[in-house]
Amino acid sequence: MKNIKNKLHNAFEFVNKGYFKQAEILYLECLDKMDEQNSNLYKQAMHGLGFVKLELNHFNEAKEIYTELLHLARKEGDKQGEAIANHQLGMGDRLNGNPDKALYFFAEEYEIYNSFLPTFHLGFATNLYERGTTYLLQNKLKEAQNLMEDSLYHGKRTEDVIVVGCAYRDLGDIFQRFGEREKAMNHYKYALDAFEKANDSQAVKDIEKKIANL
Known about the structure:
mainly alpha
């Protein structure tokens, strides 16, 4: 058991460094040694492996993993686990070029929060952000704007400045595409402030580039 916990920790460190193939190997080794599918360690390894599969663009394998986690969460009555699995399934479909399927899973996630976790602002913020991003990819700017503004509303009620910065950044992109330069600039400046507070140097550079090119 201790060996599995150590491997999971090392796999997580590999993920943080972007070494996804190395993380994949460790997650698979952990799962190969586990029998209890309802254990927390099993679910931790499965979530880790699913994330890695998405990063490696192995979308079908990721879908199988998150579908299993979704069924497991439903069986256990774990509403938050069910919401997370839906979110990740939506992410996979969005990244794989299936926006309508992605929106279906994000809608399922949203309904869980709305029915069972109505004060979970971080969950709402990330859900609404991903839905807004999906509409933005479809060039449905008004729908994307509405969802991003809702994401920002919930994001401000959390302590997560990254979530706030992402919503401001994408709203800046939306206003730029509307041709509303001043609104775009204002939102980029708010995003820049949020990312500076988060010490996210890469996000700061990206925003500074957007401002310079506006």
